[in-house]
Amino acid sequence: MTRPRSSRLRLRTVAVVVAATACAGGVALPGTAVAAPGAAVSAEAPADVVVPFRADARLVSSGPTGFLSVVGDTHYWTRYADGVETPLPRKGAGAYRASAQSDVLVWNEGMRYFVHDLSRGADAEPVVIDSAYELRGVNGSTLVMRDGADGMHLVGCAPGGDVVDRPVSGLPAGVVRHVYSTAPGAFAVQTAGLTEKLSVVDVATGAVTATYDVHSQTDTVQVSAEYVAWRVGTDTTMVARRNGGAPVRQSFWGPLVAGGWMAVSNGYGLRQVGGGGGSVYLLDSARQVVVGGDGAALVHGGTRADGVGLYRVSVGADGEPDVRKVADTGERLDLTMKNETVPSVVDFDRSSRHEMSWEFNHQDVDVTVELTHIATGRKTTLRSWWAPDEFVSHVAWNGLSEKYFGAPAGAHTWKMTTESVFGTSITRSGTLTVVRGTRQRDFTDNGVADVLVRDADGKLSAYEVSQLEALERDFDCFEEGCRPVLRALTPTTLGTGWNTYTLTASPGSAAGGAADDIVGRDRDGVLWLHRSEQGKLMPRTKVGGGWQVYDKITGGSDLNGDGRGDLLARDTSGVLWFYASTGDTAKPFKPRAKVGGGWQTYNLLTAPGNVAGATGGDLLARDRDGVLWMYLGKGDGTFTARRKVGGGWQKYTHVAPAGLNSKGVADLFAIGPSGSAMYYGRDSTSTPFGDASKVPVNGDSTTYKSVF
Predict the structure, then answer these.
(1) Which residues contact 6 (CB under 8 A, 6 or more apart)?
(2) Picking from 177-191, 236-250, 336-350, 480-494, which range would have the lowest pLDDT averaged per residue?
(3) pLDDT of 628-680, one tens digit each?
(4) Which of 6, 5, 15 is nearest to 84 (CA)?
(5) Residue 90: its pLDDT value, please?
(6) Which residues of 650-667 are buried (b: 16+ CB within 10 A; e: fewer)?
(7) pLDDT of residue 511
(8) C-alpha distance across the termini of the chain, in Å
């Protein structure tokens, strides 16, 4: 491709003088006929002239002598010959109608229509036409109008100054649904009668030259010198020759340009529509395309060599492509960043979603952001979503790491990289801080409840409930950014050497810290406390001896309403004891208080928290027949009479608290050799849990020796 001369003309502006004259001294009827297929067409501008084009402008139309653009609500006409830019008087939103592939612009004030041929000069007086018809399109200097009886008319001015009103002949019977005027000298009318019809009308004769059967969903039509094209729905394009030939289905869509081509992907490439199927790609970037006065594509785009501007793009009769720059924005195509918006603090307690964004000089730039938790090294990868025609690329963070796991609180580094765009890319980096409040059963400080698991080797791990819920689950997502299917659990190791303990439990925050604590009884009967802080377990502190008298210890509930987690312990004679917490690490529990005897009938105890909305934490107990019973807490360390939850729970070896759900009540995780399940709290005393939601994990005494 030959690089055009970039002779930059100084931007000049002149004001349009609008003086209405009743159909005198202006545009003459009839409109220009469409050039025959293959006929030579003239270029819009001299080959060595490159005129200015505003970088923030949107291209509206292009004629033989200039192009129309808009910035905000101001329209500008720019001449190809010398680059003079004329701001047009504001007529209100949508008041200007541009005639495709011509220099004509039309606006109206009530039933008065002003036809302005800008090729005659920006200060030339427009032709004024008074008409009671409804304006449906503009073709060259001709107004395409509809009367009250669905009759179509071609209205314009004769050279002598008289208004000429010519009825369109040959239209099928039916209601006029749409009028499409996309090429000089011809337009299309879609009518709905017994069937939908599409008719091509020649402006010079006012007669229908071809009619096609179309679908009721047809809503976009183009007419060029050689072809008629229309869309059916969102994914079907039909193309037929102007002489009424049979339409052919195509899989692409764009403006029809001279020589039997269609400008696709906003003008980035040209594809043949006449059966050849060939494609050429001539620009490195394309934002917008219109058809110019000579029938070629006029593309707002760019190349790496010549920068951004307006390019005339066509393919000649010999099949050779031609690209010529006709206007220049002064921008280069290399990717640059204009603005960056990244929060320094991300507080997931205030909002569950936080965005980061980068503004570039190109649209639809894909970015990837990798966040790394400095303390643990856990990474989170975010990718921008598809936002067509936007110069700002966004990523959103919902507090999850790798789409399933909670992102830890604390300092994170972030790194943003772009996909390679025209051989260039951008990398940015920084730091931010994640803020999270404490959550019940959150031992990894990431806002997600955990289930604690000790294996046979004594390793203690935290299994995030979000992982358990998502394992091998297909979320039936068909959009970008879907969660991948989670194939394996990746727990967080909290410590080793826990096989020194014969009983373990998590009472909640018993020693006054923000996070939950863990207690363990060793083989000598000594109870030890491990405080949890910022995702780590602190060195243990001694609670006291004599705990060898107990064969069950459970925790997780605030049983007396003081805001701290308490312990329950059953001795070998079947008596249940209550240990209220103090909030003091040195002496975390008060002397025990007797709850009552007879608890030897149960082989599993768990205190998950508030299950059914009573005043205190609740207790669940399973008897030897596999029946689960619920004891509602009274808020003073004692319980109401038991209520039956249901049978069949003998298949589980462990039942553990799984945090609070959106109703503010406790969920359960149950695991056994035959499988696992989540039971979600319903805040009900009669049916405290919903049906089992299966989790594809089978318990064993090696990996899941103790689950609490």
Answers:
(1) 50, 306, 307, 325, 328
(2) 480-494
(3) 999 999 989 999 999 999 999 999 999 999 999 988 899 999 999 999 999 99
(4) 15
(5) 83
(6) bebbbbbbbbbbeeebbb
(7) 78
(8) 71
Burial of 318 (0-12, 13-18, 19+ CB in 10 A): exposed
Sheet containing strand 261-264, strands side by side: 256-257, 261-264, 269-272, 279-281
Angstrom distances, CA of residue 333 to CA of 233, 242, 307, 425, 499: 35, 39, 5, 12, 64
> How far from chain centre, in Å, is Cα 162?
56
Neighbours of 274 (CB within 10 A): 16
Interior CA angle at 504 toward 506 and 672, to 5°? 95
Supply the Cα-derived Rg of the chain in whole angstroms. 38
- How far is it, in rounded angstroms, from Cα 409 to Cα 70? 48
Q: Which two tokens stand for residue 373?
A: 């938790």
- Does the pLDDT value for residue 517 go beyond 70? yes
> What is the DSSP annotation of 388-416?
TT-SEEEEEE-SEETTTEEPPSEEEEEEE
Q: For residue range 238-295, what is the model confidence (pLDDT) as tens digits?
A: 999 998 889 999 989 999 999 999 999 888 899 999 766 688 999 998 989 999 999 9
Sign of CA dihedral 296, 298, 301, 304: positive
686-704 pLDDT, tens digit per residue, is 999 999 999 999 999 999 9
Q: What is the mean pLDDT of residues 537-549?
A: 95
350 burial class (0-12, 13-18, 19+ CB within 10 angstroms)?
exposed
> Is the pLDDT higher at 395 or at 121?
395
Residue 288 to residue 297: CA distance in whole angstroms: 10
Is 604 in contact with 593 (CB distance < 8 Å)?
Answer: no
Give the residue among 262, 330, 676, 630 at the shortest CA–CA distance from 469: 676
Query: In this structure, how many other beta carbons lie within 10 angstroms of the beta carbon of residue 291?
Result: 22
Residue 13 — pLDDT band, cuts 50, 70, 90? very low
Q: Is residue 312 within 8 Å of 292, Cβ to Cβ? A: yes
Q: Which run of H or of E encompasses 360? A: strand 354-360
Q: Which is nearest to 600 in space by CA: 625, 576, 626, 618?
A: 576
What pLDDT does residue 64 have?
A: 95
Determine what percent of the chain falls in helix, strand and coil, rounding each to the nearest 5: 5, 45, 50
Residue 14 has pLDDT above 70, yes or no: no
Alpha carbons 485 and 489: distance in angstroms, whole number: 12
- Mean pLDDT over residues 164-188, rounded? 95
CA atoms within 13 A on the CB side of 90: 6
Coil, helix or strand at residue 698: coil
Q: Let me know if 359 is exposed, middle or buried by CB neighbors in 10 A (0-12, 13-18, 19+).
A: middle
Give the position of tokens 């060595």. 48
Residues whose CB falls within 8 Å of the CB of residue 62, separated by 6 or more in sequence, listed in order = 44, 68, 101, 290, 291, 292, 293, 298
C-beta separation of 394 from 385 below 8 A: yes
Give the E-state strand segments of 612-701 in sequence order: 618-623, 628-631, 643-646, 654-660, 666-672, 675-679, 693-695
Residue pointed to by tokens 């299917």: 485
What beta strand segments (E) does 294-336 contain?
297-303, 307-315, 321-328
Phi and psi, residue 584, nearest 5°? -110, 120
Distances in whole angstroms, Cα of residue 372 to Cα of each of 53, 380, 674: 44, 6, 38
Q: What is the mean pLDDT of the chain?
A: 88
